[in-house]
Amino acid sequence: TSLACSVYDGMYRKEEDLNADQKTLALRKLPSILEFFSYCFCFTSILSGPAFNISDYNKFIDGSDKDKDKPEPSGVLPSLIKFLTAFFFISVTFVLPSSYEPFFDVEWRNSHSFLYVSGYLYLLSFLTRCNYYFAWVL
Predict the structure, then answer these.
(1) CA distance 45 to 38
(2) How many CA atoms lie within 13 A of 22 on its CB side?
(3) Tens digit of pLDDT for each residue in 102-122?
(4) Which residues have C-beta within 8 Å of that of residue 58, sequence separation ≥ 6?
(5) H-type helices in 28-113, by residue range?
(6) Helices (H) and strands (E) in the chain, counts
(7) How far is CA 70 from CA 61, 67, 73, 96, 103, in A?
(8) How crowded is residue 95: how many other Cβ atoms within 10 Å of its Cβ?
(9) In this model, does residue 26 exceed pLDDT 70?
(10) Average per-residue pLDDT in the chain?
(11) Is the pLDDT of residue 57 over 90?
């Protein structure tokens, strides 16, 4: 509905009838099919939100919303941190054995305290989750 309002404000209403927000959000021409579908199927529109207007989306796409005086931030450090985190999780997966076999052995469970068995199960579940953490971090 925000797209319809923006088109209506930009193409069918007089400039003097619009308030300041409507003037900035108004569309003076219809978006192309590609622009329309890219706006409709943008990740933040479909899954995560929040909702935003197509004029804000177009400014983001063409880069006119950026502050020209500020330099672009470097992506080297965040990429390195993600790589090292993923490397840690995959290393844990391959280095530490994760075997649930002793846990299913009744004699082994009865020969150890409840706290020890619970800690062992917690460690095994962490080692199993490391596979997923590796994929999610990448």
Answers:
(1) 10
(2) 15
(3) 778 888 888 999 999 899 889
(4) 31, 35
(5) 33-40, 43, 54-62, 76-95, 101-104, 106-111
(6) 9, 0
(7) 18, 6, 9, 46, 57
(8) 8
(9) yes
(10) 85
(11) no
Q: What Rg do the C-alpha atoms of the chain give, in angstroms? A: 27
Q: Is the confidence at residue 13, as pLDDT, over 80? A: yes
Q: Which residue has the tokens 């930009």?
A: 10
pLDDT value of residue 124? 86
Altogether, the residues listed in the chain come to a count of 138
Average pLDDT in the 27-40 region? Answer: 89
Q: Which residues contact 31 (CB under 8 A, 6 or more apart)?
A: 3, 39, 54, 58
Q: Using CA atoms, how far apart are residues 49 and 36, in angstroms rounded to an integer?
A: 17
Return d(Cα 112, Cα 100) in angstroms, integer: 15
Judge contact between 29 and 45, C-beta under 8 A: no
Tokens at residue 116, please? 């020890």
Cβ atoms of 112 and 102 within 8 Å: the answer is no
